[in-house]
Amino acid sequence: MLKIAWTQIYAHPLPKNHRFPMEKYNLLPEQLLYEGTVKDANFFVPSPLSESEVLRTHNAHYWEKLKSQSLTRKEERKTGFPLSEQLVEREITIMNGTVQAALFALDYGVAMNIAGGTHHAFTDRGEGFCLLNDIAIAANHLLDRGLAKQVLVVDLDVHQGNGTAQIFQNEPKVFTFSMHGASNYPMHKEQSDLDVGLEDGTDDPTYLKLLDRHLNELLDQVQPDFVFFQSGVDVLATDKLGRLGMSIEGCKMRDRMVLERCKACGIPVVASMGGGYSERIAHIVEAHANTYRLAQEIYF
Q1: Residue 272 main-chain phi, psi, to 5 deg
Q2: Could you report the per-residue pLDDT of 51-89, keeping only the tens digit for each?
Q3: What is the pLDDT of residue 19?
Q4: Does the keyword Thylakoid belong to this entry (predicted)?
Q5: Which residues does 30 contact at the CB level (< 8 Å), separation at least 6?
Q6: What is the pLDDT of residues 8-29, one digit of tens each?
Q7: Sign of the CA dihedral 235, 163, 105, 41?
Q8: Domains plus CATH for the chain?
């Protein structure tokens, strides 16, 4: 059964002109249920992550500042969110959603998080709508318990996974692969194990050819026994922040490529939603929904 983490605590208010589309977190599961792709039984609601799990990945001083709401104005602005207790509670619940999804993936081959993909969170700071790094936290959870020996992060959000790269810069058990807009945020890139920078306007054929080559090479060379897939849909040509030229169908082909390769190799995979900022919310929801439709088609 496809298991999907759904963190149903999105009442935290944001300014009306805020560019982060919070509504997609409710619209996506509603769409999947409406069309019959999933049923209520597919969803689980995670509990908040324990402090000890947070501190396995993140700096204690930074975590204390989040808990006490004592980030500086500059630090808060870099996250993109007005800090609040509700926001931190939401974040640690999303983190555990990816941890729990990883455990389900060991049983079912694949699991998803309707949220997560918070790849701009560093060990000691948050950036770009990310306070804590769910991919890093979940990877460390598996490694610490001997549930995985070699993790591959496939980060296909349009923005480089700079926080994930920094967290695992000295960890050979986690290979970080980020394929992103070369001229897009963040302007200062961290060094992933493999970075593939894309020119503005990159279209479907160019993108998919590159991904096909690198994915085949990495699965062969890294020999991962677990994959974390950051499946941001801000690669779309319609995205306000993306600057690439991909279609919804091209984005779907991207997701099919990742999921089919993992399935063929017998590698469990967790997909976290990542970014998506198209003007029309329908474009965002449709592109994200394709990832879940494919997971059902390929695995179940």
Answers
A1: -110, 145
A2: 999 999 999 999 999 999 999 999 999 999 999 999 999
A3: 54
A4: no
A5: none
A6: 754 445 555 555 667 899 999 9
A7: negative
A8: 3-299 (3.40.800.20)
Question: Which two three-digit tokens encode residue 119?
Answer: 């790849």
Query: Which has the closest alpha carbon to 294: 269, 276, 274?
Result: 269
| CA 4 – CA 108 distance, rounded (Å) | 12
Strands 43-44 and 226-230, bridge-based pairing = unpaired
State if pTM tops 0.90: yes
Q: What is the pLDDT of residue 11?
A: 46
**pLDDT category, 48, cuts 50, 70, 90?**
very high
CB 236 within 8 A of CB 248: yes
**Which residue in 178, 148, 140, 174 sits closest to 162, CA to CA?**
178
Q: Would you state the pLDDT for residue 15? A: 52
pLDDT digits (tens, 9 = 90+) for 134-155: 999 999 999 999 999 999 999 9
Token duo for residue 282? 């329908």
| Token pair recorded at residue 100 | 């729990």
Angstrom distance (rounded) from CA 2 to CA 15: 34
| Exposure of 37 in the CB half-sphere (CA atoms within 13 A) | 25
